[in-house]
Amino acid sequence: SQQGEEDPQALSIQEGENATMNCSYKTSINNLQWYRQNSGRGLVHLILIRSNEREKHSGRLRVTLDTSKKSSSLLITASRAADTASYFCATDPLSGGGADGLTFGKGTHLIIQP
Amino acid sequence: DVKVTQSSRYLVKRTGEKVFLECVQDMDHENMFWYRQDPGLGLRLIYFSYDVKMKEKGDIPEGYSVSREKKERFSLILESASTNQTSMYLCASSFRLGVGNQPQHFGDGTRLSIL
Question: For residue B72, what are the domain limits?
Answer without folding.
Answer: 4-96+104-114
